[in-house]
Amino acid sequence: CIAEGKSCELDNEDQLAVQRPSKETAKGIQVPSLTDLAGTGVDGGSNAALEAAVNKVDDAAEEHPAADEAGAAPEQVTLTIGGTEAKTGSSVADAAGMPDAIVTETEVPDVIAVETGAPDAPESNAMARPGMQDHLQRCHHLELGHGWWSVRINPTVTLSAMVLIWAYVAVCILHPDYMLKAMNVAAFEWIPEVWTWFYIVSQNIWIAVLIFVMCVGKYGDLRLGRDDEPPQYSFVTWFSMLFSAGVAVGLFYYSVAEPVWHYKGEGGARWAHGNKGYGNDNEDATHALVVTWYHWGLHGWIPYSMMGAVLAIMAHRRGFPMTIRYVLWPLIGERCYGLIGDAIDILSVMTTIFGVSTSLGLGAMQVNQGLQRLDHGFYRGVNYNVPSDARFSEPTCGGTGQTCSEGKEPYGLQANVTTQIWIIVCITMVATLSVVSGMDRGIVNLSRFNFALGMALLLLVLFLGETYFCLDAIVQAFGYYLWYLFKLCFQTDTFERLGSSALGLGGAPDGKGGSDSWLSGWTIYYWGWWISWAPFCGTFLAKISKGRTLRQFILGTLIVPSAYSFVWFGIFGAEGIRMQRLAPARGVC
Asked: What is the pTM of this model?
């Protein structure tokens, strides 16, 4: 565009290497203004340096004759700033040794050399920095088909992930008891014993880093894309998509169950007054809400936000493909293209599959139970749709883990594996249809519908239940959350995990305190679950966040979702605990 006398708007990542125009064309070159040249992101202090660079390119074009028409490769002008060549794929920022093209006059030397040489790319690509296709070409890849149905895969990642996942599934099918024992030992014994400190500390470090980045102007103002690029989606649409991708199933499944479980002290919760030896039920109720918020607040969302922020920077500002391997580019460089990068992607695929399987399984079980209750007409402990025939006196005996007594039969829909498989098939078909329909039609509209449905249910419970009681509970629990946050986020149950004093490991002689397995069954389980979703959900958040600043991204993926989770669990949890207290008095349970 310089050779044609047009004003050029260069992204702050664009290279300085340009195709040398012919002598005739060069005579008509109009050096664009700094605003036109720099586009966005280049500091005003670099005016002189950039204008001098353009003049040098102009002079070089005048001094060297163009390549003849016999097909000789035209030469390329390469600028050298501060002794570093800005070759193909480099940028103003790379040449100056500064990130994000924040170049100031004092940081760019006045001496700008111009060198000429043969180009490394065809004429049509002379102004292009290495893009996604260039990075993909350097990795192991296989191209299948052509035209609109062509597909490019990394056979190493795809085949390895498939083999490992299906091998794991096969072993679980063939030896379910042994695999269950092995997974329980790994998840609830080895990991809690060895890695509890790391799980707890790492979440806190990530939160501190992202809040610092959000608050510091030069980092928070960094745009995920071109500096003048607007957000791709409105805030409501954007939030509905990250809500649906990140927590939709978990919010519905645990909305009432987790606060009630904590209130009842299930699993030996350390704050339950029956375990600690003092306190009362009212304190237990507030602590139940606070601990639920801890699991679904800042510390829950931080893996998504951290992964998404780094991936968005690397993809939208650096031009890397949106895969997890390139998150580690600043640490391992070109090793991302080799086996180390493949191993990172294989691991991310496997963790995504297992994390999604957990959520899908929980969702299928919940849908199954809900459909069964609707089918049986269950209300306040009575199955109104079940016939009074004695054969159906145990209508749910066909469910998983249950057996029917002699002469008894299950009635209607049952909560069992067969039903749940069909539910998973239906959910998968709807999800596949949404993905095939495209981001702007399928996923966007399905996310909007899902979010609207959740909001309708939330407001229904709020306004049809004890409204002011729920609002009071949210305010009170928030105060407790702020007060206890540092205690909660560094709690490792150090002495509780020594177990009973009878084990001879130094357990509490008075027998008070929490269970040795509570932390592994709740907090450590949650952090592992959230982290397993980070590759998938972080990638999706990065994909839909192009054009937003880093501050907007952190607010939208960490602060706002946490606040929404507080309201959600505050309403459902408070109502659930209140109804749990009413149930025994009314003979429901």
From this structure: 0.73
